[in-house]
Amino acid sequence: MKATRRTILVLAIAAAVPLLQGCATKIKASSLTNPAPTEAFSQYGRIDVKPVAFANGYNGNQAALGKIAENFAKDLGPSAKKWNSGPTNGRTLTVEPVVEQISFKSGAKRVFLGPFAGSSGVLMRVTYRDQNGKVVASPQFFQRAGAMAGGFTMGVHDNLMLNRVAKLASDYTIANYDRAVGGPTGADDAAVAAP
Q1: What's the Cα-to-Cα distance from 150 to each of 63, 70, 106, rounded to whole Å?
Q2: How far is CA 11 from CA 3, 5, 20, 133, in A?
Q3: Spans of all domains in the chain
Q4: CA 189 → CA 28, 82, 124, distances in Å?
Q5: Crossing angle between the packed helical segments 62-83 and 156-178, to the nearest 10 degrees
Q6: Which of 14, 28, 60, 110 could form a disulfide with 102 if both were Cys (CB 3.0 to 4.6 A apart)?
Q7: Are the C-beta atoms of residues 116 and 123 closer than 8 Å to each other?
Q8: Could you give the residue ranges of the DSSP H alpha helices within the chain?
Q9: d(Cα 147, Cα 154) in Å, to the nearest integer?
Q10: Phi, psi of 38 (to 5 degrees)
Q11: Which pLDDT does position 5 carry in this prediction?
Q12: Protein fold of 24-189
């Protein structure tokens, strides 16, 4: 009897492993680090931050986009307000945050499917343009929530992913204000697409 139970357990685990391996997100970053902008953002008298949006033609989870936008505004807002309170010099930097890809597993999916709902992932690009439209920087930011972590936290890990990607983007903006230094994408080796 014990051997039968053990056999059933082994077969169940063997069947589940390929399913969980197939749950990894296909969203990838192109590198581990973002290059520095062509000049520090403090060289601009005004910084105009556009709302976070999806890439043209991309149809993603609107609630997840709203959460990223909310966190980006909260993280960057105080600094942008301070920067824009100083004297103007005729130069404006436009900040355009765009979510290029997202796979977000909602709390309801996590409750019903747990880790079998798969991993969540997000890739966001922020383009910084001068007043003439010239690109000063175009860093990307990546985050993911693994299937197992997302499943066992009932979606909390998935929601934290949205906070983290917004924080990476705002941190890059703040870090490159006084000096052009670049910054991390948030990806690890497993999350970087093969060339």
Answers
A1: 17, 21, 10
A2: 12, 10, 15, 59
A3: 24-189
A4: 10, 36, 18
A5: 30
A6: 60
A7: no
A8: 2-21, 62-83, 107-113, 147-152, 156-178
A9: 10
A10: -65, -25
A11: 63
A12: Double Stranded RNA Binding Domain (3.30.160)
